[in-house]
Design brief:
alpha+beta, UDP-n-acetylglucosamine1-carboxyvinyl-transferase, Chain, 2 domains, four-stranded mixed sheet, 14 helices, 26% strand, globular, binds uridine-diphosphate-N-acetylglucosamine
């Protein structure tokens, strides 16, 4: 497995382009199953998760090509079941369930198990599809769904900790071809859901209220092909903003949506990070001290769980105590122990991590456990003196387009070491 060798302690300086959003593009690719016609998706990041989704869609009978950030897809004829092995390996693939069922009346996917960040239930996805008149059976670890034409219904999708992002995507996609009107209450408001809605609307779907907790979808008989450009990745942008601040660098992020990052930018400001937003660019300026801040992760528009680990790395620099409370995924603190190998003092108390920052750090060998935890280890490696080796960086390749190249273009000493 590849690893990154980082020679830390150098400020990042320069300009980088933010890539298209991973979490927006995965459901958008799944949505192309809703039509027989060709769809063209632009600004698609070159990520292993995207290519994985491509393989899944191919296994379902779709033509999928990826060229320089443009995906061309056509699902003329569909198979009801794809390659279970592929589907099982990527959590995001659950979002094929809704479109597949709506288009072909049946769908089977493997039941996602837990993962390192906690249990990943899909009860809300299934509740929503049942409300639309689907029959669901769970057998030997697989979800089998079938339906005649789906029927519009009122669905409440709020769960234990709030709305579900992919659950909302699934029900929204299924409802576009249902008979009648579907109202989703407590819908996820994430920008990735709004982006999916824009794509579906371009395909001919009737959707109102995307980006709000109440979405109304009026079913249509068929959807047609469409072109779409994916929104910038707000989590990638947050990651580079924090890496710049952590190294006291001067970095301008281009192709940004600052409005998607209000909670993160507000926290960075509170931490004393100097920033200048101009149109679609954000400049992080070198400054003085980083202040300790407290944060709780929340559904959008709150502070995203996907930026929690990266903020923890930044807080290692802040003298004093900061408390990070994780409200979305119960065990999403796997990075804390690895950060401790670099000299961090982090205590986990229930859903909170208490970080005593400002201590001397030094490079070490660490192990990436999931995508965002890996990003936190890279940030920490960039900011502490000495050599840090981040192992298992295949997690990063799932969600960060060319991270090593982008960091090198900012002057970082990062080398990808291939496993021999
Ligand atoms: C998506 C993102 C992920 C992000 C997460 C929360 C993608 C590919 N992934 O994941 O990066 O961290 O949103 O912003 O877009 N839940 C239930 N029942 C369900 C579904 C979810 O109880 O049926 C719970 C989950 O356990 C979790 C919370 O709801 O506690 C939010 O999960 P959800 O929004 O569904 O996350 P994903 O859509 O899987």
């Amino acid at each position: 497995m590849d690893s990154f060798l980082i020679q830390g302690g150098r400020p990042l300086c320069g300009d980088i382009e933010i890539s298209g959003s991973k979490n927006a593009v995965l459901p958008i690719l799944a949505a192309t199953l809703l039509t027989r016609e060709t769809c063209i998706i632009r600004k698609v990041p070159d990520l292993s998760d995207v290519h994985f989704m491509g393989k899944i869609l191919r296994s379902l009978g779709a033509d999928f090509t990826y060229e320089h950030g443009v995906v061309t897809l056509q699902a003329k004829r569909l198979k009801a079941r794809g390659d279970y092995d592929l589907i099982r390996k990527m959590r995001g693939s659950i979002c094929i369930l809704g479109p597949l069922l709506a288009r072909s009346g049946k769908a089977s996917v493997s039941m996602p198990g837990g993962c390192v960040i906690g249990t990943r239930p899909i009860d809300l996805h299934l509740k929503g599809l049942k409300a639309l008149a689907a029959e669901i059976h769970i057998q030997e670890g697989y979800v089998h769904a079938k339906a005649g034409r789906l029927q519009g219904a009122e669905v409440f999708l709020g769960g234990r900790v709030g709305p579900t992002v992919l659950g909302t995507a699934n029900i929204m996609m299924a409802a576009t071809l249902a008979e009648g009107v579907t109202v989703i209450e407590s819908a996820a408001c994430e920008p990735e859901i709004t982006d999916l809605a824009h794509f579906l609307i371009a395909m001919g779907a009737k959707i109102e209220g995307a980006g709000s907790p109440r979405m109304v979808i009026t079913g249509v008989d068929r959807l047609h092909g469409a072109e779409h450009e994916v929104i910038p990745d707000r989590i990638e942008a947050a990651t580079y903003a924090m890496a710049a601040a952590a190294t006291n660098g001067e970095v301008t992020l281009h192709h940004m949506r600052c409005d998607h990052l209000a909670a993160v930018l507000d926290k960075l400001k509170e931490a004393g990070v100097r920033m200048e937003a101009r149109g679609t660019s954000l400049k992080i300026l070198p400054g003085g001290e980083i202040n300790a801040v407290d944060v709780s992760t929340q559904p959008y528009t709150g502070f995203p769980t996907d930026a929690q680990a990266q903020l923890m790395a930044l807080m290692l620099k802040a003298a004093g105590l900061s408390i990070i409370t994780e409200r979305i995924f119960e065990s999403r603190f796997m990075h804390a122990n690895e950060l401790a190998r670099l000299g961090a003092d982090i205590a986990i108390e229930g859903p909170s991590a208490i970080i005593r920052g400002g201590l001397p750090l030094s490079g070490a060998e660490v192990m990436a456990s999931d995508l965002r935890a890996s990003a936190a280890l890279v940030i920490a490696g960039l900011m502490c003196p000495g050599r840090t080796q981040v192992n298992r960086i295949y997690h990063l390749d799932r969600g960060y387009e060319g991270m090593d190249q982008k960091l090198r273009s900012l002057g970082a000493k990062v080398k990808r070491v291939k496993e021999r």
